[in-house]
Design brief:
The structure is a homodimer of 204-residue chains. With 204 residues, the first copy, chain A, is mainly alpha-helical. Chain A is built from ten helices and no strands. The longest helix of chain A is centred in the last third of the chain and has 24 residues, at 143-166. The first copy, chain A, has helices spanning 12-29, 36-43, 47-54, 57-64, 71-79, 86-99, 103-115, 117-139, 143-166, 177-193. At the A-B interface, helix 7, helix 8, helix 9 and helix 10 of A face helix 7, helix 8, helix 9 and helix 10 of B.
C-alpha cells in the first residue's frame, strides 16, 4: 500500500484510475446508486484502498468533480447568524470562493459543466445530493419545496458567476462584493425563506 | 452582385467572409469602434455589399454572433403594459425563446460564450450595446445605474437558462413556465426598478 503523505497519499496512477471510475459511476448511475465497491472494481483496486485514498463517498465525489469547495464545511458559515440575513451571507461566501485561489477551479468546473454532458451530470448530482440535502437539513425547508427553492438559488448564483467571472461585463465584474451582496442577497433570501405564491402550485 | 433570394441573399462564401471579418472586428475593437468599412476591407468586399447582405450594423452584429433573437424586436413586447409587471413579462419572453425552436441556437451561443473567449467578448458587446442601450432608452433607467441593473437582470436570466436548459436540474427543468415567472419575475422587477440601497454607493 502507498505511503501516506499529507492530504494526497498514494500512487498517482491508482488515484487517477479511482477518480476516473468514480466520475463514470456517479455520472451514469447517480450519487446514491454508485457504490464504492463498484467504483473500486472499475478501477481494479480494493474498496478499502478507495476509502484510504479519498475518505467517505461524499469526499470521493468532491474529488472526482474537482470541486473547489466542500459544501459541508461552508454551510455552517452560512447558517450561523440571523435567519433574515441568510441570503446575504450565502452570496458573500459564494463570491468569496470565486475571489479566492479556488476561483480558478470554479471557473474550470463551470466551463466544463457547460461544454461537457458528463460534467453537467456530475454537477446535477452535486447540487441534488451535496447541496440540496445539506440545505434541507440545515434550514428546515420543506423537502418538496426545496427541490424548487434550491435550484432557484442556484440559478441566481451560477448566473452571477457567469456574468462576473466568465463573460466579465464591466463595471459589474469589478463591482465591490458588498454592493453585490446588497443587490443579490435579498433575492436569495426570498428564494430560500419567503412564501413564493404561485410557485409550488404545480407540485400539489 | 448576388441575386436577392429571401432573407439570405448572396454568395455563401462572401457571406461567410463578411461574418468572419465582422466577428473579429466586433470582438477586437468592440461594436462602436468596428466600422462597416473596416469589416468590408477585412472580407475583401465593397462596404455597400455588407449593407446589401446584412442591413444595418446592428443586424450584422446579430448575424455575426448567431443571435437567436433581435432585442429590438422583443423589447416592445416586454415594455408594453404595466410597469409593475415588467419583470414577469421579461422572464416570460426570455423563457419563451428557450422553449421555442430558437432555443437550440441559444444553448449553442451560451455554451460558446463559456468555452470561447472570443464569443464571450461578443456576448459582452451584445449585452452592452444591444440590450443595455435599448433598456435605458425604453425604460428611462438612469444610465449610470443601468450599468449595474442590466447585468443583475442578466445574471438571473443567464443562470435560469443554465440550470433549466444546460445543467437541467429536475424537477426545476420541467417546472411550468408560469411557476418560474412567479418566482423570478419579482427578482427582475426589483433589479430594474426598485431602489436597491447600498448597490450604487461605489458609483458615486
Amino acid at each position: 500500500m502507498a505511503r501516506r503523505t499529507g492530504r494526497r497519499p498514494g500512487n498517482p496512477d491508482t488515484r487517477e484510475a479511482i477518480l476516473a471510475a468514480a466520475r463514470e459511476a456517479f455520472a451514469e448511475r447517480g450519487f446514491d446508486a454508485a457504490s464504492i465497491r463498484a467504483i473500486a472494481a472499475g478501477a481494479g483496486v480494493d474498496p478499502a484502498l478507495v476509502h484510504h485514498y479519498f475518505g467517505t463517498k461524499d469526499q470521493l465525489f468532491l474529488a472526482a468533480m474537482n470541486s473547489p469547495i466542500d459544501p459541508q464545511q461552508l454551510i455552517p458559515q452560512v447558517w450561523a447568524g440571523d435567519r433574515d440575513q441568510l441570503g446575504e451571507r450565502l452570496v458573500r461566501v459564494f463570491l468569496g470562493i470565486w475571489d479566492s485561489p479556488a476561483g480558478a477551479a470554479a471557473v474550470a468546473l463551470l466551463r466544463s459543466a457547460v461544454s461537457n454532458e458528463w460534467t453537467a451530470r456530475l454537477m446535477r448530482e452535486f447540487v441534488l445530493t451535496q447541496v440540496l440535502r445539506q440545505v434541507v437539513k440545515a434550514a428546515g425547508i420543506e423537502p418538496e419545496e426545496a427541490r424548487i427553492r434550491v435550484p432557484l438559488v442556484g440559478s441566481q448564483l451560477v448566473g452571477l458567476a457567469m456574468v462576473r467571472y466568465i463573460i466579465k461585463i464591466e463595471p459589474f465584474a469589478s463591482t465591490p462584493t458588498e454592493a453585490l451582496v446588497a443587490a443579490v442577497g435579498p433575492t436569495v433570501q426570498r428564494y430560500l425563506t419567503d412564501e413564493l405564491p404561485g410557485v409550488f402550485d404545480h407540485l400539489a
